[in-house]
Amino acid sequence: MVKQEQEIASRPDNTAFTQQRLPAWQPMLSAGIVIPGFVLIGLAFIGIGVALFVTSQSITVMELDYTGVERTSPCFRCSDPNVKNCVCQLDFSIASLFKGPVFFYYGLTNYFQNYRRYGVSKDDDQLSGDLDSFTSPSDTCSPYEYDSNNKPIVPCGSVANSMFNDTFKLYQIVNGTKKQVPFDGKGIAWWTDYNVKYRNPSVTPLRDAFNGTVKPLFWPRPAYELDPSDPANNGFINQDFLVWMRRAALPDFRKLYRRITEGDYAQGLPAGNYSLEIAYNYPVLSFDGRKKVVLSNVSWMGGKNEFLGIAYLVIGSLCIVMSIIMLIVYAKFKFPEEE
Amino acid sequence: FMYLILLGVDERRVDSRTIYVGHRACSATEAFIPAKFCDNRIVSSKYTVWNFLPKNLFEQFRRIANFYFLIIFLVQVIVDTPTSPVTSGLPLFFVITVTAIKQGYEDWLRHKADNEVNKYPVTVLENGCRIRKESEKIKVGDVVEVEEDETFPCDLILLQSSRDDGTCFVTTASLDGESNHKVRRNDLESLYAAIECEQPQPDLYNVSVCTAQLLTKLSDLLMGLCRSLGPENLLLKGATLKNTQKICGVAVYTGMETKMALNYQGKSQKRSAVEKSINAFLLVYLCILVSKALVCTTLKYVWQSEPGQDEPWYNEKTQREKDTNRYLKMFTDFLSFMVLFNFIIPVSMYVTVEMQKFLGSFFITWDKDFFDPEIKEGALVNTSDLNEELGQVEYVFTDKTGTLTQNNMEFIECCIDGFQYKYRDASSELDGFCVTDGPVSKLQQKAGREKEELFLRALCLCHTVQVKESTEQGVDGEVIHPPQEQRGFIASSPDEVALVKGAMRYGFTFLGLESKSMKILNRNNDIELYELLHVLNFDPVRRRMSVIVRSKSGDTLLFCKGADSSIFPRVRQEEVERIRMNVERNATGYRTLCVAYKILSAEEYAQADAGLREARLALQDREERLMTVYNQVETGMSLIGATAVEDRLQEEAAETMEALQGAGIKVWVLTGDKMETAKSTCYACRLFQRNTELLELTVRTLEDGQPSREQRLHDLLVEYHKKAVQDAPPVKAGVTRSWSSAGHDYGFIIDGATLSMVLNSSSESNSNSYKNLFLQICQNCTSVLCCRMAPLQKAQIVKLVKNSKGSPITLSIGDGANDVSMILEAHVGIGIKGKEGRQAVRNSDYAIPKLKHLKKLLLAHGHLYYVRIAHLVQYFFYKNLCFILPQFLYQFFCGYSQQPLYDAAYLTMYNICFTSMPILAYSLLEQHICMEVLLDNAPLYREIAKNAMLRWGPFVYWTFLGVFHGLLFFFGVRFLFSNPALQDNGQVFGNWSYGTIVFTVLVFTVTLKLALDTRHWTWINHFVIWGSLAFYVFFSFFWGGIIWPFLRQQRLYFVFANMLSSVSAWLVIILLILLSLLPEILLVVFRKPRGPHARQVQLNHTQTHTHTHTHTLILSAPLFSSCL
């Protein structure tokens, strides 16, 4: 300790830092700055709020529940878990032009895709095309790691296994005849998921890579046959698969199924009667879930969401009110620092 | 026969030890194995290189927080938990490492200090040869040679001295702070001796150390000749040899068994009040954590009991899960939730607090205002744990001598026969009086020459001073005689020396005492001889001392000097008035003594002589008898004059004390000194003002009248209590305590003897009530003076106050070893790098060169440190609460499955990287009020008194804020996600996007919240605040921009980038940040302006805030916020 004293025996450094005298800016949020600031923020918020609100109002949304809980529902028949390959048809009409591009979502409720064990039950190595993981999937995939014959499941895990497998076909009833509305299945998943994160093994044909593996138990077809119409949309980069693999944040969610951008419907769905043909496969009643389809167009802010617009309006007005109150206080009592 | 003796010794080994001088045991005892004593090594370090790691780890994990994190880590390793062990292991590792490095460094410093002491070379006589040895190698029984001005390396029994009379002088300044010289005697001549003494005991004062049995020679041994040794034969380690060329002594206690070491062990770890607050808050958060986990676990099982929820088809359980016992599963679920929410208790807070303290303490060392050019040293920080405690001090206990005063008595003036003489300049007017025109002598008047000379003779004769023999060493830095003086004096009281020196300056020099006669060199350079007949010693009750001398001419004279109150009644009244005025004028600030004399007639002397002799020989009641005779003799004197001696105050002592009192700190002076001296110092320091009413509780007041001391004590206590406590206007507790008692000031004076009566009263019930009365009186007095205190009593007082109601924070400041006990006892101990050794500095928490530095240390540094750390603590809890609350809320939306809301990287990095640097910078640099303003406005110190920023109020506010923010973050995003299609291409966001949006809002909000609180933006603040935010954005891009090969799941791949491509996400982030900060902004607007520009306002404010009603409305907000 004596040594230490000797070391510091020399006079301490006389620098701004050591003497705690660094030049400093001392913010003075005086009323003179804050009141105009509040007014500005308030106005800006109200502006944004109005824009958001108007935009949100302009978005058309149509939701159709097809779970088939009620007896009257056309899909009631299909909701029985013992009925296989059931197809039901939902009719609806559109009163005025449903402006395009229209996005076709499917929605599930009370479905916990954000369940932790469910969420970790996949093998990202496998999904990025690593063939070693095909033969020995990660143990996180349990209980969908191996089938009863001890063959590896590819893609393994709960998430992949429970992939949504209802399919939809939309028809416009034009003069009593069904005219299929063309769906665009591209670009429904994140670009990076499709192009970088998920990779098929570089084996051609793709099905050879899956030799010695089995398809997920719940799946009707193996991964390499997910989209028979488009060979580039198979395996792990199947867009529907990618959409499903991006787990929803909340138990009531919707996922993008198709876009309606082509042909006669590029401008939107014209007014008229429509029929939705559903291949009803996905069981949800066992956990009291609901299934629905959502038709919606989007704007710059995404889908319809009134919350943002209202919140902005409220906060904006709050700022204005606060600035008025402050102004009154200010005018009445004169803030001391303004003297 | 001898065998029997030794057997006896052996049996008694437990409470005594036998030492053979020079290890020369008698031949017969050779079979007897010498007892093993410890070596002379002083060990204050805790670790060695080998045991550092295990011991340090063990000690660190004894801290509850660390242990808790270890448990969490282990749980994560063992149980299937939502987050990987890395998330808590990494921060824990970081914390442990940083702390270990810090403690290792501190221990290394202690090792260095120990080595300095242990390797000090000493001379040991072995078989007649002088051998230089390192101090640590001294063994018990070694004969050690010590030269003048060296300190004794261990406790020694004096064997031989270079002085003829076999005595030596020592100063025990570094042991008990008394700088006067004490005589030690040797009674041993032979080196063939065995000493038997009791086993080491710590009691420094009750030095009945050696109930020693001495066996001088071999033959003596056989004859059983013993000599007893007492404390006057023992030389204690730490004392310094003075006025003696060299001595030899035999080591009896060494190393850790020396009196000094035994006294100074037990330097216990001090913990600051802030740390206690942290622990309390921690407990609250632990409760929150456990209840959160319990709620989630319960709800999980409630929820799962509904059909279909436990195991939906899409989420089948694994075989192992199905097999696990249900209750075990519940338990592991509970643990998992604990792990998930454990971030609410901030691991990194400890490391940040440690770093803040460690780095922050450098500002004290670096402060050039603490640099003293005289000793060429600045402040020293021994413990960085107590920085913030400096801002919380409520009681300052200060030593007087050497702390308040320079312990440098100086003769200021005298008054002879009513005429005032002021000594002006030492060198120029050595041979003449300088008469000042004081109020007494308006004309240049002088008293008669005869009177002058009588007065000066009295000064020269009436004392017990000894002349220091000139030694080869020449001038030494003695405390009591400045080096410029040619002649050194030694006395038990420094003011006696000052008087003798004062007389010397006026031409009368005391030459010394030779064979019962005192030699004086008078103005005419003639030597006068006086035969010293009797010394009537000073005692605190009489408060005077006298000498009876016989002059050459045969007159028998009595000279008496003493306090005015004790002299005035004993002299002729007509003389009193002339001098009284002078005395009273000097009474504040100087120590005044009156000098009187009387010529004794032959009969009178004969009578007195007989009386004194008889009384001295009396076996019973000697003290009382002596006193009676003294009182008889000291009557009917005539007053010749008065002296004023000043114990010079330390620089700016009065200003410092005033500032401390202005800051609401109570100053108690604890001194070993006499009451008069101490009182005058108190006046000089403005601790006592002229209008201060003094309540005195001393031996003197107890002696007055009443039959029993106990009774008198009781009466006085009750009376004072009534005066100071009951009749005092009701004082609001807290900040304005002593401020408002300006109406009537009380000062309290107590002395050591009375204090021990108060504390150790005979009956148990009395003792407690006395203690309470005493404390209450003291707490209502502006200043308290405790004089005649033994070091342990000082500590007792500190302890008493420390443990009193409200457990106020105490600070002790002192410079001598006698202050060590109170320095160690108080919450904060401050050592002054004074002249009296280094013990105080070594045992202190902080050491400063001068008393005046205390002001800045407390008012500026302490205040800022407290505000910084308090904010740091509150902010840390806040930011972790709003960090974890969304994660908790998310459980309600994910089936209580312990799904983390944030990615593991975010969980780990949040506290380490994203939000740690701004708060660290804040806690090091913040000056919410700039230093100058703090120093100028002492009352600002009251604003943070009583741990104001870490009380439950502010804590609840911060917690509320955290909850508010957490709710806002989560539900704001929740409403946004009611439609997860947030991009203009219709694509949807998943759970990681959800978490990332919440996290982004979180990081920005808590950082901007800190930015709002920052009142002092240096470039460092700008750098770390904006840098942290930039780093977060950069990191998120980076983390999400690459497929990391070591990660099993690429959860965040492009999540952040995608989020930024969504306008809605942007808008919600902005909205939530603004909404969270809105209340804060409003508070800041209404907050009191501060900073250099605010200084004027500040002053205006203090003046106006009572009379303008209008302000109160606006100020209600600032007053609220200022303690947040």
UniProtKB/TrEMBL annotation, chain A:
Organism: Sparus aurata
InterPro entries in the record: CDC50/LEM3_fam
PANTHER family reported for this sequence: CELL CYCLE CONTROL PROTEIN 50, CELL CYCLE CONTROL PROTEIN 50B
One annotated GO biological process: phospholipid translocation
Gene: TMEM30B
Family recorded in the similarity comment: Belongs to the CDC50/LEM3 family.
Protein's name according to its UniProt entry: Cell cycle control protein
Sorted UniProt keywords: Membrane, Transmembrane, Transmembrane helix
Subcellular location: Membrane
GO CC annotation, single: endoplasmic reticulum
Main localization (coarse): membrane
Transmembrane segments: 33-54, 310-331
From TrEMBL, chain B:
Membrane topology field: Multi-pass membrane protein
EC number: 7.6.2.1
SUPFAM superfamilies cross-referenced by the UniProt entry: Calcium ATPase, transduction domain A, Calcium ATPase, transmembrane domain M, HAD-like, Metal cation-transporting ATPase, ATP-binding domain N
Subcellular location: Cell membrane; Early endosome; Endoplasmic reticulum membrane; Membrane
Transmembrane helix recorded as keyword: yes
Alphabetized PROSITE patterns for the sequence: ATPASE_E1_E2 (PS00154)
Family: Belongs to the cation transport ATPase (P-type) (TC 3.A.3) family. Type IV subfamily.
Protein name (database record): Phospholipid-transporting ATPase
